[in-house]
TrEMBL record:
Enzyme class, broadest EC rank: hydrolase
Similarity-based family: Belongs to the glycosyl hydrolase 1 family.
Keyword Hydrolase part of the UniProt annotation: yes
Protein's name according to its UniProt entry: 6-phospho-beta-glucosidase
Biological classification of the source: Bacteria, Bacillati, Bacillota, Bacilli, Bacillales
Length: 480
């Protein structure tokens, strides 16, 4: 029997989530080097342009706009924004560090002090309000030099550069940051390797081999970072981060059920098994064999994976996925990185993403049943068009309804026995969309006056959801 409201644990980490490349701006300030996000064009052409083989990683301002260059100017306005987070009652703030602010090219031996000092100021400001930072080390912004000169994560040398970067962060912020995540949505890399692995596939034929080799390098790098973090910061908690998409069979046809199971394991479990259990899953052997994938696994790699397992599992959840073995192009739906077929029982967002709060409860149970590790929802939210009324108000009841239903699903999962650490809705302040580079796809509790054409004052306004979420946090989830 389901309930309407739940009282969450006293130590539950309520907050919000963002990524450096989507809100900081100041893309050439403070000694920062260019990164992947800086060359990604804005607009609905983004994924098409960067997803095609042969993307040249160059900025062409005559042809495209680049909204990530300015973001929402968090780089200069962070004090104002963090004060708003504190007003909502945030206990935590999930953020990322821009790798190219710390190592502008990625392969330097010494870090950029201006970049390190910037994040010192961020962490000091968060501490002023007793907001606990949760820091993603790599969130879709590998330094551009590591792409153009090394080929991204296909190149094993990048492990060394990442380890140096991670150790630099741990040593610098050991007294300021307890919670860390290694790679954002690591399992999405095989679908869109340019975002997670920093390379443009040469062809569909080479995409799988290169992607899974790149993932192996990231697994080793992540494990090395976990080991270093535990040594440098005693008591630190270091997690992996998955985009979790529960996969349903279209019907009870056993062929579709088996297909859905295979997709579920490959997308949702493959990376988790390596990072949580410390070993490759058995089902990977057949997949590699059938797809001609031969991983270059060096001596000692498997030991490193076993020794560098994560302390908890963080995840993004936006939608579920419904699978059918033989589907036509007309049946394929839209989604976060991956598709599936339309689920007739679900409604969709303005961008075609299916809305399935029960899927969150299902996903949390699946993950906890498999791993028995604490879970942390570090992304969830509704991208929608928001309207500023004549009186300046933004009545985003649709966002409140979406989040309310997902918080209720979280409460149900806790009742089911799931150990859930916290909840940081995505884009707690409006920012540049990762998938489309649009500002009009808004997620935040805080409206930012910035538009797709680059116009706007950057003024911050509190939406109706701002006050609602403040009540949710203050009541520990009882007031929904």
């Amino acid at each position: 029997m389901t309930k309407e409201t739940y009282k969450f644990p006293e130590n539950f980490l309520w907050g919000g989530a963002t990524a450096a490349n989507q809100l900081e701006g100041a893309y050439l300030e403070g000694g920062k080097g260019l990164n992947l996000a800086d060359v990604m064009p804005g607009g609905k052409v983004r994924l098409k342009v960067i997803g095609e083989p042969g993307f040249d990683f160059k900025i062409d301002k005559e042809k495209y706009v680049y909204p990530n260059h300015d973001g929402i100017d968090f780089y200069h306005r962070y004090k104002e924004d963090i004060a708003l987070f504190a007003e909502m009652g945030f206990k935590t703030y999930r953020m990322s560090i821009a790798w190219s602010r710390i190592f502008p090219k990625g392969d330097e031996l010494e870090p950029n002090e201006e970049g390190l000092a910037f994040y010192d100021r961020i962490f000091d400001e968060l501490k002023k309000y007793n907001i606990e930072p949760v820091v993603t080390i790599s969130h879709y912004e590998i330094p551009l030099h590591l792409i153009t000169e090394y080929g991204g994560w296909r190149n094993r040398q990048v492990i060394e550069f990442f380890e140096r970067y991670a150790i630099t962060l741990f040593k610098r912020y050991k007294n300021k940051v307890k919670y860390w995540l290694t790679f954002n949505e690591i399992n999405g890399a095989t679908h869109m390797p340019i975002l997670g692995l920093g390379f443009s596939p040469e062809s569909e034929e080479t995409k799988l081999q290169d992607s899974f080799q790149g993932l192996h390098h990231q697994f080793v790098a992540s494990a090395l970072a976990v080991k270093a973090g535990h040594e440098i910061i005693p008591g630190s908690q270091i997690g992996c981060m998955l985009v979790y998409v529960p996969t349903y069979s279209f019907d009870s046809n056993p062929a579709n059920v088996m297909h859905a199971l295979q997709e579920q394991r490959l997308f949702n479990n493959y990376c988790g098994d390596v990072q949580v259990r410390g070993a490759y899953p058995a089902f990977a052997n057949r997949f590699f064999k059938e797809n001609g994938i031969n991983l270059d696994v060096r001596e000692g790699d498997l030991d490193i994976l076993k020794e560098g397992t994560v302390d908890f599992i963080s995840l993004s959840y936006y939608m579920s996925r419904t699978e059918k073995k033989d589907k036509t192009p007309e049946e394929i739906g839209q989604g976060n990185l991956i598709g599936g077929v339309r689920n007739p029982f679900l409604s969709t967002s303005d961008w075609g993403w299916e809305i399935d709060p029960i899927g969150l409860r299902i996903g949390l149970n699946q993950l906890y049943d498999r791993y028995q590790k604490p879970l942390f929802i570090v992304e969830n939210g509704l991208g929608a068009y928001d309207k500023v009324e004549e009186d300046g108000s933004i009545n985003d009841d649709y966002r409140i309804d979406y989040l309310r239903s997902h918080i209720q699903a979280m409460g149900e999962a806790i009742e089911d026995g799931v150990e859930l650490m916290g909840f940081t809705p995505w884009g707690c302040i409006d920012l540049v969309s990762a998938s489309t580079g649009e500002m009009s796809k808004r997620y935040g509790f805080i409206y930012v006056d910035k538009h797709d054409d680059g116009s706007g004052t950057l003024e911050r306004k509190k939406k109706k959801s701002f006050f609602w979420f403040k009540d949710v946090i203050s009541s520990q989830g009882e007031k929904l």
